[in-house]
Backbone:
């Protein structure tokens, strides 16, 4: 189990295949090994501290992170977290965006899909994005509900400490971005 050795019996527990009481959905992690790429840009990790940005009244939610490039390198993949199965998603990457506006700067690529199960996934980009040391780039993920009873939600780690200007979200695809630092998330 992902909770560690202190959980259950040395980190393990038993559950019958016929037990329908544990949860109404499962969370899937399809993340790459840390050795797959030279650098991994992230402000949190997939852990038991994961929570959800929810309560969105719009069928569309956008989330974004802005990162500073450590050295000359290529961006090859992006990780995203989804709360529902088969929710539509679109990933956009921008080079050198304005500090508090992740969808500004030079648009570098866009990739979309809708067949992933709920959980965390690594999505390989169709084209490599060349980055130079000191540049900034934003990864913007747009989630769109596919069923009437789904509201778009995104996963974040509640135990991570966000700094101003790093992580953002907003309802829809226009309007002001909300900085997660000032939201206490």
Residues:
């Amino acid at each position: 189990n992902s909770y560690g050795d202190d959980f259950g019996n040395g980190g393990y527990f038993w559950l019958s295949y016929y037990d329908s009481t544990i949860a109404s959905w499962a969370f899937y992690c399809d993340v790459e090994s840390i050795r797959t790429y030279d650098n991994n840009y992230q402000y949190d990790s997939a852990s038991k501290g994961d929570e959800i940005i929810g309560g969105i009244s719009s069928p569309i939610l956008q989330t974004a992170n802005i990162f500073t490039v450590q050295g000359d390198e290529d961006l090859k993949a992006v990780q995203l977290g989804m709360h529902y199965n088969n929710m539509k998603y679109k990933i956009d990457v921008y080079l050198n965006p304005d500090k508090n506006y992740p969808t500004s700067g030079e648009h570098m690529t866009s990739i979309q899909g809708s067949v992933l199960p709920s959980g965390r996934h690594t999505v390989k980009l169709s084209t490599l994005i060349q980055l130079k040391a000191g540049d900034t780039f934003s990864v913007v993920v747009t989630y769109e509900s596919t069923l009437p009873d789904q509201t778009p939600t995104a996963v974040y780690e509640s135990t991570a400490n966000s700094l101003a200007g790093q992580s953002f979200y907003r309802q829809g695809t226009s309007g002001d971005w909300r900085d997660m630092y000032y939201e206490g998330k």
Remarks:
- The mean pLDDT is 82.
